[in-house]
Design goal:
By secondary structure, the protein is an alpha/beta fold. The chain folds into 2 domains: about 15-180, 3-Layer(aba) Sandwich (Rossmann fold); about 185-385, Dehydroquinate synthase-like - alpha domain (Dehydroquinate synthase-like, alpha domain). The chain contains 14 helices and 9 strands. The chain has helices at about 25-30, 50-60, 75-90, 100-115, 185-205, 210-235, 240-260, 265-275, 280-295, 300-310, 320-335, 350-360, 365-370, 375-385, and strands at about 15, 35-40, 65, 95-100, 125, 135-140, 150-155, 160-165, 175. The strands form 2 sheets. Strands 1-9-6-4-2-3 form a 6-stranded parallel sheet, with helices on both faces. A 3-stranded mixed sheet has the order 5-8-7. Helix 1 packs across helix 2, helix 8 packs antiparallel against helix 9 and helix 8 (about 265-275) crosses helix 12. The chain is globular and about 60 Å long.
């Protein structure tokens, strides 16, 4: 501990609990907004949620503009287009409602309104110079943690790869987490986003940038998610399980914001950029294979994760206990219907070398990983994931 120096900044105000969406109008007023640019997932209206979102704005006399042209894997051009609409409408507050894509677009619009330029100008770390307009995030899935992170991820149409804007100005001013808004998630989305959150918690816990605070968040998140996800998947109307999953996702997001993620995310990026695989699904399928590769990098940490998963490790060696994590993830993925292989996702083996090259350019997650991967090793992980576990 005497050599463990770390800095943490997490400025987002959190409002958590069932029915808290009713306070959205108050939050807009408190952050100084007078006209809202409302970025929403296009499926929100069909799920019967849009009326619940706009009702508190209307009750508060707050004008708003709805923007619902959000893709599951948004490109940089979409962020630029959304910013033009927000500027034309003279919006001075952005609210992002939905999954990670909607929230990432909302965060980017906030920054572009005050910093100018195009979204691609801010890819990387530390390129955002000015604070954005006030931004409030309202997750309707339990997975991305985007409501408490300083990252917004997009597909770069010029390169076909995924990349992120990263910087403290992207932290939302406030996040409103109402578990009732997640009840309408279908089982497959519950599964993908839930394993995505588990990936955030696990990768941040074993990250070389981890510290006691991030590990506290990550370990608690893993314990919650591992036990709550099957219940939320089995019965979406189980509000207790939905509440636990939203809390687990939040804690995982806070861990991610402090310690970062690892090789799973780096390897998932080309799956999204090149083949359109949803981010959460790519993470979920890759997770057990990357964990298996990483075990030797920090077996003691993985042994702790095994205990959190519920395994009795008292009579096992550290390495034997660590290996139980792979078994636990494979079983959880199976229980919630996650495909076990890249073959099921239609990803051809003849693209693995190209994918590995792209993955290794996602430098921050690669550098955070507890084991330093070579291109050949990344190709081998993709190869291992091609046919699935026996």
């Amino acid at each position: 501990m005497s050599q463990n120096i770390f800095t943490i900044q997490q400025p987002t105000r959190l409002v958590f609990g069932s029915g808290t969406i009713k306070s959205l109008g108050d939050l807009v007023h408190e952050t100084g907004g007078s006209k809202v640019f409302l970025v929403v997932d296009p499926g929100l209206k069909g799920a019967g949620l849009l009326d619940r979102i706009v009702a508190p704005l209307e009750q508060g006399g707050i004008p708003y503009v709805i923007y619902d042209k959000v893709d599951p894997e948004p490109g940089l051009r979409l962020a630029d287009q959304a910013k033009k609409v927000a500027a034309k409408e003279k919006c001075d507050c952005v609210v992002g409602v939905g999954g990670g894509s909607a929230m990432d677009v909302a965060k980017a619009v906030s920054i572009l309104l005050t910093n100018g330029g195009k979204a691609e100008d801010y890819l990387g770390l530390g390129k955002i110079k000015k604070p954005g307009v006030p931004k409030i995030m309202v997750p309707t899935t339990a997975g991305t943690g985007a409501e408490v992170s300083f990252t917004a991820v997009f597909i770069n149409e010029k390169t076909g790869s995924k990349g992120g804007m990263n910087g403290d100005p992207l932290y939302p001013e406030a996040a409103l987490l109402d578990p009732e808004l997640t009840v309408s998630m279908p089982p497959h989305v519950t599964a993908m986003t839930g394993i995505d959150a588990l990936t955030h918690a696990l990768e941040s816990f074993v990250s070389i940038q981890a510290n006691p605070i991030s590990q506290m968040y990550g370990l608690e998140a893993m314990e919650i998610i591992f036990h709550a996800l099957p219940k939320a998947y089995a019965n979406g109307k189980n509000l207790e399980a939905r509440t636990e999953m939203l809390l687990g996702s939040l804690l995982a997001g806070k861990a991610l914001a402090i310690a970062g993620v690892g090789l799973v995310h780096a390897m998932a990026y080309p799956m999204g950029g090149m083949f359109g695989v949803p981010h959460g699904l790519a993470n979920a399928v890759l997770l057990p294979y990357v964990v298996d590769y990483n075990l030797m990098g920090c077996p003691e940490k993985f042994a702790v994760i095994a205990e959190v998963m519920g395994y009795n490790t008292s009579e096992l060696t550290v390495r034997e206990a660590a290996a139980m994590v792979v078994e636990g993830i494979v079983n959880l993925n199976h229980d919630v219907g996650i495909p076990s292989s890249l073959e099921e996702l239609g990803i051809p083996a003849d693209r693995f070398e190209e994918m590995a090259e792209v993955a290794l350019t996602v430098t921050r997650p690669v550098e955070n990983n507890p084991r330093c991967p070579t291109k050949d090793e990344v190709v081998q992980i993709y190869q291992n994931a091609l046919l699935g576990w026996e």
